[in-house]
């Protein structure tokens, strides 16, 4: 495995662990909490819980499904969250897959990069509007002509990050948003060879300074001193589950992992789901995750050259129960000093 690592993240945070662990995390130096969403939890509802039970950390969706809501709905939610937690709100948006948008959300999502750019433009228009100012926008996907006369506006600057993976969407983040919120699969090479240059390319197209853009991201982390083998196994399970999605094929090809991933996908289709972890190599594990006991986890952090500037220490969730995830969150809080 590689030896020396590069610069450490400046800050760390957690996917929302609940009030009690969040209090511990803030006291230990956590600078941010985020929330994904799925069929049983909503990113904005969870962020409201964060707003009501934290005091210093940044809070926000990380990510909310962008096209499942109108720009108006995103912007109004952000304004209300800002009233609960002034100056502490960020907005993370993700496109989701074509199938999810079509079959789950019943919305259109063709040309997702351009659609995302327009959506962010409209969200910003709502957030930057002054009282009495009409909000107008005409694009290919969004048309707005809103004159909201109630005195509820006033410019609000909230960081907007895109859960961008492919090159085109990363360019959109550089051109239109305030940065990226990287997926838990991001490796050092993906950050250095794809994300950084494409962010710069997108920023240059809009005459923006790429150095001011946010580079946040998730890091799959499973630490258990009593049962490190289980922690390693569950980290492999999470990696394998993510890799069942073809969205990440470009990164797979970059690393030459095609045969491994094809075996994962074949097992996922026909074998018990827990067997997909069998096909995650140690090379894949060390490139993506931090896991095992504290000693190995520290070695894995040291081996990384490029971690996000704000890293969300994320426990595995695939086939992992809530109590087990809470144990991982608790371990992560104690381990965080090794990251910054």
Topology:
Layout: E1 11-15, H1 19-28, E2 32-35, H2 43-53, E3 58-61, E4 64-65, H3 71-84, E5 91-94, H4 98-104, H5 112-128, E6 135-138, E7 143-146, E8 160-162, H6 167-175, E9 179-182, H7 188-205, E10 214-223, H8 228-243, H9 249-255, H10 258-270, H11 282-288, E11 290-292, H12 294-303, E12 310-314, H13 322-335
Parallel strand pairs: 1-2, 1-12, 2-3, 4-5, 5-8, 9-10, 10-11, 10-12
Antiparallel strand pairs: 6-7
Helix pairs in contact: 1-13, 3-5, 5-6, 6-7
> Which stretches are poorly predicted, pLDDT < 50 over at least 5 residues?
none
Give the total of domains. 1
Assembly annotation: single chain
Shape: globular
- In CATH, the architecture is Alpha-Beta Barrel
Mean pLDDT: 95
Continuous helix count: 13
- Which structural class best describes the helix and strand composition? alpha/beta
The CATH fourth-level homologous superfamily: Luciferase-like domain
Please bin the fraction of helical residues: 40-55%
Integer-rounded radius of gyration: 20 Å
Number of DSSP strands? 12
- So what's the CATH class? Alpha Beta
Strand content: 15-25%
- How far apart, in Å, are the first and last alpha carbons? 21 Å
CATH T-level topology: TIM Barrel
Helix and strand element order: EHEHEEHEHHEEEHEHEHHHHEHEH
Largest sheet: 7 strands, parallel
């Amino acid at each position: 495995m590689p030896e020396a690592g590069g610069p450490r993240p400046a800050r760390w945070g957690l996917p929302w662990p609940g009030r009690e662990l969040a209090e511990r995390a803030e006291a230990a130096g956590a600078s941010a909490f985020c929330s994904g969403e799925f069929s049983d939890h909503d990113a904005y509802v969870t962020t409201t819980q964060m707003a009501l039970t934290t005091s210093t950390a940044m809070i926000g969706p990380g990510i909310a499904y962008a096209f499942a809501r109108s720009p108006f709905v995103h912007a109004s939610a952000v304004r209300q969250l800002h009233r609960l937690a002034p100056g502490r709100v960020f907005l993370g948006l993700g496109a989701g897959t074509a199938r999810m948008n079509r079959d789950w959300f019943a919305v259109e999502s063709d040309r997702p990069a351009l659609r995302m750019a327009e959506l962010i433009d409209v969200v910003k228009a709502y957030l930057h509007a002054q009282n009495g100012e009409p909000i107008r926008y005409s694009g290919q996907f969004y048309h707005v002509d809103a004159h909201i006369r109630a005195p509820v506006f006033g410019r609000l600057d909230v960081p907007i990050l895109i859960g961008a993976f492919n090159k085109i969407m990363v360019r959109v983040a550089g051109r239109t948003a305030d940065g990226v919120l990287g997926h838990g699969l991001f490796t050092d090479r993906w950050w250095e060879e794809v994300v950084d240059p494409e962010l710069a390319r997108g920023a240059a197209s809009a005459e923006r300074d790429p150095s001011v853009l946010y580079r946040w991201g998730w890091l799959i982390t499973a630490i258990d001193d009593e049962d490190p083998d289980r922690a390693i196994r569950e980290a492999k399970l999470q990696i394998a589950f993510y890799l069942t999605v073809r969205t990440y094929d470009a990164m797979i090809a970059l690393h030459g992992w095609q045969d491994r991933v094809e075996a994962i996908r074949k097992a996922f289709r026909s074998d018990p789901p827990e067997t997909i972890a069998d096909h995650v190599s140690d090379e894949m594990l060390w490139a993506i995750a931090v896991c095992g006991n504290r000693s190995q986890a520290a070695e894995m952090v040291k081996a990384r050259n490029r971690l996000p500037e704000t890293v969300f220490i994320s426990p595995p969730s695939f086939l992992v129960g809530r109590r087990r995830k809470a144990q991982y969150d608790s371990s992560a809080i104690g381990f965080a000093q090794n990251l910054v």
